[in-house]
Design goal:
136 residues; mainly alpha; two-stranded antiparallel ribbon; 48% helix
Length: 136
């Protein structure tokens, strides 16, 4: 039975989506930057990114926000228009390849400011140097 207490209002849903968008933005940028390496820059004057960069960024961010999961397999990026209204063709993206072994758990940890650096420092620390007593 649905009661007013367990139904999200539109505002709550929008707030949750915005929170997810903020959480996922950095990792999406990282993934799309890796995808863009070696691809030619869009020939439109003033472009600094390859064709499809912003469509892929938006698609991946929207997908993560809506599904709380990475897309799997090959997805077709829809045709789009650049800032000068020039048509950019559709192109396939293999999300298994570009997301690699990332999981939402690592995605969440990576989104916490300073967490990535802290984990990397901890990996370098010798086990004999680790505290046996937790501070928390």
């Amino acid at each position: 039975m649905i009661t007013p207490d367990n139904v999200n209002t539109e505002e709550e849903t929008n707030q949750e989506q915005e929170k997810n968008t903020q959480r996922y933005a950095a990792i999406v940028e990282e993934i799309v930057e890796e995808w863009a390496k070696g691809k030619p820059i869009n020939p439109t004057p003033g472009s600094t990114k390859p064709s499809g960069y912003f469509r892929l960024t938006g698609y991946l961010l929207n997908y993560l926000t809506a599904h709380n999961a990475f897309p799997r397999g090959v997805h077709a990026m829809p045709e789009g228009r650049d800032r000068f209204n020039n048509l950019e063709p559709s192109f396939p993206v293999d999300f298994d390849q570009i997301t690699g072994n990332r999981t939402l758990h690592t995605l969440h940890l990576s989104s916490i400011p300073g967490m990535r650096e802290s984990i990397q420092e901890g990996i370098k620390e010798a086990i004999t140097e680790c505290s046996k007593k937790l501070d928390w």
